[in-house]
Amino acid sequence: MPVKRMCALARVSRAGFYRFPSRAPGADRDLELRDALQRIALEFPSYGRPRMTAELRRRGWTVNPKRVSLAKIPAGTKTATGLHLLVAYRIG
After folding, report:
1. Helices marked H in 1-92 — which ranges?
2. Integer Rg of the chain from CA
3. Given a cut of 50, is residue 82 above it in pLDDT?
4. What is the rounded CA–CA span in Å between residue 89 and residue 92?
5. Taking 50 as the threshold, does the pLDDT of residue 30 lie above it?
6. What is the DSSP letter of 45?
7. How far apart are CA 64 and CA 54, in angstroms?
8. Which of 4-8, 21-25, 80-84 has the highest mean pLDDT?
9. With bands split at pLDDT 50, 70 and 90, how would you rate the model's confidence at 4?
C-alpha cells in the first residue's frame, strides 16, 4: 500500500509519518552481535577485529570489519590485541 494512501486512511500527514523512526526507542539491533562477540572473545582472547569478523562469518553472520569494531566499543569487549609488550634490549 502506498504511503500516501496509508496516511489518508490514518488521517496523518506524510511529513508526520516520516517524522518518527520506524523502530521502537531503545531497540538495539546489535545486541545479538555483541553477545556473539563476547562469546568469541572468551573462547579466543587473542582474536582481533579481522579474526573476529572471520569467525562471525563462519558462524553465519553477515558482517564487515567496521561493524564489528563499532559493536565491540560499546560492549567493552576486551581482547589481547592492541597490547604492546615491552622488550628490553641489552646493548654492549
Report:
1. 3-10, 14-19, 31-43, 49-58, 65-75
2. 22
3. no
4. 10
5. yes
6. T
7. 9
8. 4-8
9. very high
Q: How far apart are CA 1 and CA 67, in angstroms?
A: 33
Closest-CA residue to 38 (of 72, 70, 81, 80): 72
Residues whose CB is less than 8 angstroms from the CB of residue 7 and which lie 6 or more positions away in sequence, other chains included: 13, 14, 16, 17
CA 92 to chain centre: 50
Q: So where are the chain's domains? A: 28-80
- Alpha-carbon distance of 70 to 53, in angstroms, equals 12
State the cell numbers at 47. 582474536
- Asked if pLDDT for residue 24 goes beyond 80, the answer is no
